[in-house]
Design goal:
With 245 residues, this protein is an alpha+beta fold. It folds into two domains: 143 residues, Four Helix Bundle (Hemerythrin (Met), subunit A), CATH 1.20.120; 84 residues, 2-Layer Sandwich (Nonspecific Lipid-transfer Protein, Chain A). Helix content is 50%, strand content 9%. It has ten helices and six strands. Helix 1 runs antiparallel to helix 5. Pfam families: MDMPI_N (PF11716). GO terms for molecular function: metal ion binding.
């Protein structure tokens, strides 16, 4: 695995190059995230990056909520709705300020520290990985409506690792018994990425980019070219998620 903090910074730069080129009309255009404009998507990213800073500073505010409250998506939607009155220039500057601080701040944090995040706590490296995964997913929400190509890079390895690593959690959330799954994925450069025990009876093979899109809930397993064999592989694709809640 390459350096997650450097790759996170590179992902931010890639998205920045897209956002900087958008017209005012594109900022107000519906995104691929249902109910959100492109501005709403970027506002959400700015807000969640600011929550990273708050977590690093020891302020768990929004995370210290009633354990019975599980509607994280609803909480995010409420945050966006409360702060929509912002121009594209102001919004881009706000996201840049928050995102620009995240990689180095997480890299400088003690490696074994646990930071509050949504459903529990994460290490700085894992939190960086979730931020990369969220920005990559939302980059597709921004670019898809305009037919803007968003490249698949070697940075997807972090996202694929996260999706596979959290499969037991994903199974449990759906009330299912966790089962071992081996993934043999084809990287954007044609290399092979392997996750899990090669001896597992359940195996997922295919393009890593599609695996990550399925985990981001931007691609239905049935619409992908991924192959699922064994007793639990198809089920794993159904529950796969590259995010914590």
């Amino acid at each position: 695995m390459t350096d997650i903090f450097g790759d996170l910074e590179a992902e931010y730069r890639q998205l920045d190059s897209v956002l900087a080129a958008l017209t005012p009309a594109q900022w107000s255009h519906p995104s691929a995230a249902e109910g959100w404009t492109v501005s709403d998507v970027v506002l959400h990213l700015a807000q969640t990056e600011e929550l990273v800073t708050a977590s690093l500073d020891g302020h768990d505010g929004l995370f210290a909520r009633d354990p019975a409250v599980s509607d994280v998506d609803g909480m995010a939607a409420d945050l966006v709705a409360a702060q929509r009155d912002i121009t594209p220039d102001e919004l881009l500057a706000r996201w840049r300020a928050a995102a620009g601080a995240t990689p180095s701040a997480l890299a400088a944090h003690p490696r074994q520290a646990r930071l509050p995040w949504v459903a529990g706590t994460l290490s700085p490296r894992t939190l960086a990985t979730t931020r990369l995964a969220e920005h990559w997913a939302h980059a597709h929400d921004v670019t898809a409506p305009f037919g803007i190509a968003y490249p698949a890079t070697a940075r997807l390895r972090h996202i694929a690792w996260l999706g596979h690593r959290t499969l037991p959690y994903a199974f449990t959330l759906e009330g299912l018994e966790p089962a071992p799954v081996y993934c043999d994925l084809t990287a954007p450069d044609g290399d092979s990425w392997h996750f899990g025990d090669r001896g597992s009876p359940s195996v997922i093979t295919g393009p890593a980019a599609e695996f990550c899109l399925v985990g981001a809930r931007r691609l239905a397993p049935a619409d992908s070219t991924l192959t699922a064999t064994g007793p639990h592989a198809a089920q794993a694709l159904t529950v796969l998620r590259n995010y914590a809640a």
